[in-house]
């Protein structure tokens, strides 16, 4: 029922029946293999006309299929436009679906084709936080490693443990001598980390009581490891939209909660407009009360709902 009446942010609602918990991983688990279950995926950041047909036809699936005998194979492709002399590449972008404490990144050729190693590459990382995006929401990449003469068919990198959500592998270097004049391939990309995601959140949809009602007690059960923290909060309101969605109008720094027809923006409206037109989301404090926080230890016995009622 958790998924039916609320929204998850980095929450696992399947591992323990009837409960919710932050995403967790172990060093033996390849995060690439489960990224789609968390809303992540693999892609590229080039326009389609520069991508080999094999990739466009789904060849990228061979990189994440868990089978070391299949691979995305990239033959030399000389760049004729723009003066020639360079070779096209296919930057590979991975969204793990949540930020994890990553300690190891590995990619390899097929075992029987070690000669197809990626001779040059650049590895970029991003933790997925708002602080590592630009003003229109684009990721700002941090270069972690640049290899100019790789002779290994299996690249196995021990990463200084750090929070990572997005990984960008750029085969080849910069310029004409970029290491792409020969065939290269990737059979599998693997990412390993340990522990829980740093934060997770579950927010229920507004619960319609059918009529203004006096509220009684709220109860919950929990389990908390040392060093962890759980916040339980409630708010009450008079309508079904507890947030205000803001739109950038383009007039100086003006923001408006209305669409171009003068109607209040809904969540669906907000998500449909371009990222650079989104002005942010704030709590509706006109029709809804502020969040009230509860003492975690009082959950089993029950504690009076602090938010105002009847609502």
TrEMBL record:
- Disordered: annotated span: 257-288
Instruction: List the biased-composition ranges (Basic and acidic residues).
Output: 260-272
Position of the signal peptide: none
The protein's name is F5/8 type C domain-containing protein
């Amino acid at each position: 029922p958790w998924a039916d009446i609320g929204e998850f942010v980095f929450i696992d609602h399947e591992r323990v029946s009837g409960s919710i918990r932050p995403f967790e991983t172990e060093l033996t688990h390849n995060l690439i293999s489960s990224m789609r279950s968390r809303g992540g995926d693999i892609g590229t950041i080039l326009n389609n006309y520069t991508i080999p047909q094999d990739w466009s036809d789904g060849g990228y699936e061979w990189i994440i299929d868990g089978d070391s005998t299949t691979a995305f194979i990239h033959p030399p492709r000389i760049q004729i436009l723009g003066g020639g002399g360079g070779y096209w590449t296919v930057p590979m972008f991975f969204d793990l679906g949540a930020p994890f404490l990553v300690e190891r990144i590995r990619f390899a050729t097929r075992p029987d084709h070690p000669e197809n190693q990626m001779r040059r590459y650049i590895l970029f990382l991003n933790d997925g936080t708002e602080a590592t995006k630009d003003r229109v929401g684009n990721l700002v990449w941090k270069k972690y490693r640049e290899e100019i003469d790789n002779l290994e068919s299996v690249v196995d990198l021990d990463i200084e443990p750090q929070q990572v959500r997005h990984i960008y592998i750029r085969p080849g270097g910069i310029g004409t001598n970029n290491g792409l004049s020969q065939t290269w391939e990737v059979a599998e990309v693997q990412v390993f980390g340990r522990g829980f995601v740093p934060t997770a959140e579950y927010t229920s949809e507004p619960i319609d009581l059918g009529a203004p009602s006096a509220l009684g007690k709220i109860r919950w059960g929990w389990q908390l490891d040392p060093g962890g923290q759980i916040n339980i909060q409630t708010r009450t309101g008079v309508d079904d939209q507890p947030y205000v969605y803001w739109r950038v109008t383009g007039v100086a720094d003006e923001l408006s909660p209305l669409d171009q027809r003068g109607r209040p923006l809904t969540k669906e409206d907000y998500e449909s407009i371009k990222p650079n037109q989104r002005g942010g989301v704030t709590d509706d404090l006109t029709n809804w009360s502020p969040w009230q926080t509860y003492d975690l230890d009082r959950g089993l016995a029950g504690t009076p709902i602090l938010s105002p009622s009847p609502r």
